[in-house]
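Entry 14. Structure prediction run on the chain below.
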Amino acid sequence: MEKELILCDTNVLISWFKGEVKTLAILERIGLQYVLIPSVTIMELMQGARNKIELVQLKKKMKAYHIIHFNETSSKLTIDLVEQFRLSHG
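Output returned:
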């Protein structure tokens, strides 16, 4: 039986970043290769970054996951713009 892919929202990832044991256990049981993250969720997490160090840490963590784009071209552009302007304009 093939495993299903799981779509994770912002609150799940925030729990993971905080090191909440239950969330970590569930993500480990699912397996990183089966976790999908919407590009909008990445943008929300970028908006929550308090400084460039947190932004870099977020980008490193997100490399392990499959990103789902609502429209690949526009969502990639939006992510780049959020990254570029978030800390300088917010």
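The two ends are 47 Å apart (CA to CA).
Filed with the rest of this week's runs.
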